[in-house]
Amino acid sequence: QWLSDRKKRALQKKDVDIRRRIELIQDFEMPTVSTKIKVSRDGQYIMAVGTYKPRVRCFDTYQLSQKFERCLDSEVVTFEILSDDYSKIVFLQCGRFVEFHSQHGHYYRTRIPKFCRDFSYHYPSCDLYFVGASSEVYRLNLEQGRFLNSLQTEASESNVCDINPVHFLFAMGTAEGKVECWDPRTRNRVGLLDCALSSVTADTEIEGLPSISALKFDGALNMAVGTSTGQVLLYDLRSSNPLIVKDHHYGLPIKSIQFQHQLDLIISADSRIIKMWNKDTGKIFTSMEPEHDINDVCLYPNSGMLMTANEAPKMNIYYIPVLGPAPKWCSFLDNLTEELEENPESTVYDDYKFVTRKDLENLGLAHLIGSSLLRAYMHGFFMDIRLYHKAKMMANPFAYEEYRREKIRQKIEETRAQRVQLKKLPKVNKELALKLIEEEEEQQISKKRKQKNLPSLLKDDRFKVMFENPDFQVDEQSEEFRLLNPLVSKISEKRKRKLKILEELEARGQEEEEEPEGKASDAESSESSDDEKGWVEEVRKQRKLLRQEEKLKRQERFKEDQQTLLKPQFFEIKEGEEFRSFKDSAKKQKLMKKTLEDRLKLEEKLGTLNVSDTTVGSKQATFKLKKSEQQRKQQEAEKQHRQERKTLRRSASHLKSRRGRGRLFH
């Protein structure tokens, strides 16, 4: 998993363990996904279909390699090997096509009326029976090369079908959870089983109607049925009740059922797990959970080998020696398993220790990150267990002493737990903590409430700071506390007495808690009833006290104001501004508080606003912006400058005219 293919080949020459790994069939895989897998009757060829692109691959077990590969036009729903070898194959494809292949390749292709999901081959009559999204069972005769009259069933749809190898009874599983049995000789229905009703037991929980998803005959009398809700039912054809019902407990449809005759086992598989169980008792023999989802399971005949088609490129091969011997083309597996039993080997991770980055920093090995001594995996690293022990001994040489001390402390705490312990109250909000402890004790004593106990605030980490940080201390003298808790004075006095006794016991260091003796129960009940009746008086009393305290505070503030001497305050005027009075700011504030209508009227009086009616009937308002003092001074200076220039021009023109008249006179 960590190494590339090139490095694996290089390691095979050096490492003995890697050389022991077995690849039974070379390139036993599909490009993306494998959907179905079957073995020919002679046991020499293993055929598998998958995607993508849709294809079929044939593997020769004698050569332990792939024999041929053929690509198809559409995906294969299922297929059947009609001959003893690979020379006659029928493929049921997604696009309502049935394709026939011979030894040389594609032979013929035809189309069926409806989409089909499964088919079976009837050897005596050479008929193919197709079931699918229709109430009819289509029959295609391969000897005559034509369709025959279809079988009309009561089902709306059918999912699977099978033909008994002994007496050739045809059975089909419907979407309504029933199994219909037909006699091919008379083309009449001879039996009906309601498997959906039989699959529901006291322990099973189903959400919908179970449909039939798998069907398999065993001999002349036994039949196994798999449902879409994950149950497997074993029937005797002579009875309408199942012999045994086995639940996978995953709620997933059963995809494959196989019979193992040597140990009387049934091998059932859904997309997640393969279960092997005894068909007489229902006892689990073993189970396997592959890494990827399962599409099909194939049991190699008369052996302990199991092959699966998965939602992954690799097709898995399992060999279980208890189920039977290895096939003759890989008989060396028996010798290997015997050697493995004699020499039990450790698993891959037995010699490694998983450590996180924080563990490496504590051990002082953070500098090894990126080196060959650490292998990155998930949120940490794998390192050699010997290196880990050495580093731990160097980092903490007194680990054994700490371990011994911790064990002694645990033993002492176990003995102390048998004694009566004092209540340990927190430093902050002691009265609140004591109140919570008393409420917990009352809930434990009273058995009337059947509600679940809520978690305690003292043990909840979310409220931990409330009993540690002094900022969260409850202020009992505040107005809100005294008004919302009118009876807090009497309750707090009782709790304060108890708190005082507990603090005295803690100070003395006593090991046994002496419960404070309170009043009699009758006195307490009368006290509580008085409190319930007079809570209005308590609220009034608290309000009266609050008014008196507020009056005293006002008197104190008034005395302080009289004693304080007022000092003159100085203000700095900005450069370029003229000081008028403090009344201007007060006028501005009064003006801003007025409504828009009052301000408009005031502006009209001052002449800065002119409101007139238009011809359309609306009103037109013209505003004149107020000028600041600085702008007004600047405009006056410009006006004065313009007047001075005019006077200069007039005097200059007057002088010129006088000079001209003087020259004419001379």
From TrEMBL:
Pfam families per the UniProt record, alphabetical: Beta-prop_NOL10_N, NOL10_2nd, NUC153
Composition bias type Basic and acidic residues, residue spans: 626-641
InterPro entries associated with the record: Beta-prop_NOL10_N (IPR056551), NOL10/Enp2 (IPR040382), NOL10_2nd (IPR056550), NUC153 (IPR012580), WD40/YVTN_repeat-like_dom_sf (IPR015943), WD40_repeat_dom_sf (IPR036322)
GO CC aspect terms: 90S preribosome; small-subunit processome
Assigned keywords, A-Z: Coiled coil, Nucleus, Repeat, WD repeat
Subcellular location: Nucleus, Nucleolus
Residue ranges with Basic residues bias: 642-666
GO annotation terms (biological process): maturation of SSU-rRNA from tricistronic rRNA transcript (SSU-rRNA, 5.8S rRNA, LSU-rRNA)
Recorded family membership: Belongs to the WD repeat NOL10/ENP2 family.
Stated name of the protein: Nucleolar protein 10
